[in-house]
MSMEG_0569 family flavin-dependent oxidoreductase (Harenicola maris), 427 residues
Amino acid sequence: MTQNQTQHIPVVIVGGGQAGLSTAYCLKKLGIESIVFERNGKFHSWRESRWDSFCLVTPNWQCRLPDFHYDREYGGTDPDGFMLRDEIIAYVDAFAEMAKPDLRENVDVTRVAPRQGGGFNVETTIGKWTCDQVVIATGGYDTPIEPPYAANLDPGVFQMHSVDYRNVDQFPEGGVLVVGTGQSGVQLMEDFVRAGRDVHLAVGPAPRSPRKYRGRDATDWLSDAGHYGITIAQHPDPVKAMTQTNHYMSGRDGGKEIDLRRFHIDHGVELYGSLADMDGTAVKFLPDLTKNLDDADRSYLGIRTQIDAYIAQQGINAPEEPPFQKVWQPTEERTEIDLAEAGITSVLWAIGFRPDYSWIEADVFDARGKPVFDRGVTAHKGLSFIGLGWLNTWGSGRFLGIEEDSRHLAAQIAAQLEVPVKQMCDA
């Protein structure tokens, strides 16, 4: 096909990560042709957007790509372990080799627009396509978030977003202020602690989770209790589920809890409340450190209570745990510091990302720019999303839920394309 020709294909999938390739695989099993466009290389976020010491936070057994479970088809031998970055890449690459999608790498999709009479026009950097269905599998990590006042920081202070972080050696000598306490922020904080650096941490409202509790990983208990099977439609507080930051813990060293109070006591990490403003070398924080630490502990204890209730209900003989105790409590709320006086030469932003859907010309977004759908299927016929958090369950957007979500979406697409029922059953 030349640059000026238009080719038709039943389904275009935008995004060559695990969600996009899983959907392509499930469609292939139903006999439906698709093409996957990836602006970089396949699994780019695993290869290029993860730091050197990265490892999974959830156990390997939760890696369940369709027909390619870690401890089944892939033949992984450490289901309760936590794969390192290169091991994750080997796993997803092996899935791609098995799935054999029609994948076009280093192709940017610049426009998706509905066609009169149905279907879509898709414009890319290698030409134009028409299709009946479009699946958006780009995830929610397009644009790194940095607050506007980051531009007011003294230019002599080094700044980096977590998307560009690989290791501590990228940073100049001196102390570092890590902003954000989601899963990335606390793990990058530990990287600097291990390197013997002077670490300061702006603590946000992220919740935390136990790791091992009453003899097992907390995620094992939660799985057995049916927690991961709860759908967003069944959730008692769906708004909270959709907006809450992920619980922080770590898969490092075989898996462990992250207690910021203990990092302060044991490693001298200086803790502050949420970052509020910057001007030159002056940095201001909200007086919410105590609240944020207490809220994180409240979440931690809530998960323990949930596990306790399941153990009691099932009559399981499990070892008891000592009561939780706070090892440290702030005596004051420091709301302002001078970076130069504190010896801080760097700021590491770990406050997340926002998606960019500006290239999609369809009325499927709410006032905040988030897509509106039912299990990924939007009100605009033929336009779907996959790989986003709580598409259906907690596992959506993670390895755990991709198989279920991609199979469901493929079936929905097949129904819209009116694929014969026998063909669907035989696939």
Q: What stands out?
A: The chain has two domains: 6-142+355-426, 146-349. Confidence is low (pLDDT under 50) at residues 421-427.
